[in-house]
Amino acid sequence: MDKNKHRILIFGGSGFLGSAIYKELCSYYNTFGTYRTETIALSKNQHYFHYILEEDDATEIIEAVKPTIIISALRGDFGAQIVAHFHMVEYVKNNNCKLIFLSSANVFDAYSQFPSYEQDKTLSLSKFGYFKIKIENMLLRLPKKKYAILRLPMVFGKHSPRIIEIKAFYKAKEPIEVFPNLILNVATDFKITQQIHYIINRNKSGIYHLGSTDLVHYNDFIKEIAKTLQLKNPILKQVYTTNNDRYLAVLPKHNILPKHLNYRSDFVINELKQ
Ligand SMILES: NC(=O)c1ccc[n+]([C@@H]2O[C@H](COP(=O)([O-])OP(=O)(O)OC[C@H]3O[C@@H](n4cnc5c(N)ncnc54)[C@H](OP(=O)(O)O)[C@@H]3O)[C@@H](O)[C@H]2O)c1
What we know:
By secondary structure, the protein is an alpha/beta fold. It has helices at 16-25, 40-44, 58-65, 78-94, 127-140, 161-171, 189-201, 218-228, 265-273, and strands at residues 7-11, 30-35, 48-50, 69-72, 98-104, 147-152, 154-155, 176-178, 182-184, 186-187, 206-209, 216-217, 236-238, 246-248.
């Protein structure tokens, strides 16, 4: 593949997903990333830029890199993120560039009675979901070929914050919270990075729902994880938010990826065994 085909800038390139995406793409494309927390390795890396949402102007880094693809994998203050994404969208509008935004199943968290598909109307009751919808709407005003909105359910990779947290609670003999009525699909960074690579390589755009093809009960899934990680008698704290089943699941209907990029929830569990 022509390494010069794309220049890719990953905002949040030091995070769990951002760094996994960087690793997946850097041998194929000219890839750059941002980091907030200083480390010797990152500050020495010519492809990484120090960037703090609340202090720095995203445009300066964008103008320095001149990306053809921007990937947004940031966390941080919602207001500052809105401003940063406004700058990204302005650049994309006026240049040969596409914006890939990591969104969340939470954009549908007001609809609890069924899974959600790409073209469903978003509606959220949470601050986080509402914030993600706001950014999605900024992208949706761009021509379709200039954006990809990737909605992710909960991600459970080996190095994911969720798995690290489960192990830490277990070690400290503290309870792991579980939500008995929650039904969801799940994701792993291993597949997400391949899916993003495919979306870039095939120049795909629009809205994608990237998660397992099947649904799981949160309780059962966490128990399965505990078994796989060989945590003996973990303390599970049942948190009841409703007596009815509640869905937090994003499934594809329109933008279906090829078979080898699809997976079931047991794949996510098996990944933890490696
Ligand atoms: N993980 C999931 O289960 C999941 C599910 C759905 C959607 N998503 C979305 O995927 C994206 C990435 O999530 P993640 O789990 O990879 O998050 P993460 O590991 O916490 O990484 C967040 C990234 O944002 C950077 N960051 C945080 N605060 C910042 C600030 N004030 N200024 C500049 N940079 C800042 C971090 O930099 P440092 O690490 O250098 O401080 C890091 O690079 C997020 O948009 C999230 O909403 C994640």
